[in-house]
Write a structure and sequence with these properties.
It holds the Pfam family Methyltransf_11. With 268 residues, the protein is α/β, with parallel strands linked by helices. Helices cover 29% and strands 29% of the residues.
Amino acid sequence: MTMSKNDSYFNANKATWNEKVKIHSKSTMYQLEDFKNGKSSLMLYEIEALGDVKGKSLLHLQCHFGQDTLSWCRMGATSVGVDLSDEGIKLAEALNEELQLHAKFVCCNVLDTSKHISETFDIVFTSYGVIGWLPDLKPWGKMIAERLNKGGTFYMVEFHPIVWMFDYLEKKPVMKYGYMQDEVIYEEYEGTYANTESKMISKEYGWNHGLSEVINALTEAGLHIDYLNEYDESPYNVLPDLVENESGMFVTKDKLYPLIFEIKATKK
């Protein structure tokens, strides 16, 4: 079978994420020791949106090295995490064993989830820095609908498309990319968002998706949108020159545009 251009992009991203796992697991951002000692990695938005997950089945898409998957598990959900990075899945499985939890993990491209997982779930969850790795959201929306029980909940919280219009590699962010852009965006830079001092070279291929594309991918797949909210704050300090506010969230100095959005949807 001939490899498509997208496959070569995915392979490059996988190699980068395998390297990132080693750096992120030691970073202050991911607070792995605190996590092992019981600290949840989940943020306020997702906890408030999904509420009591005890006894529910939950599929976590693009789970990195599994902290959120395991945090849901600690809250009583039966969790399954999916990620492209085999190093990420390896560490997730090791954490699951060390913490004596009962999550399961699958290494695959998120778009191929239905080839690897046949069961359906009460909740499908994904968060922060996920859809930009996907060239087309229609197969993503279809896969989410396939993996949800009837009446089940899909929830995502993600960086806002406006955030991805800027190039942050120079000193001052420059608006460079389209709000909706079909062409792939290639970036190569030193360090990662969790450790800017790291010497690793990140080589990444990504795509920009406007909110209409996200909503249409989900509704066309048969999901009913319960709400879409946009916020001018982020729980993560991942962009240059953000300022921490009283509630511990990070905002731009001028608050001119939203930093994150959340969508909750139900399978009809």
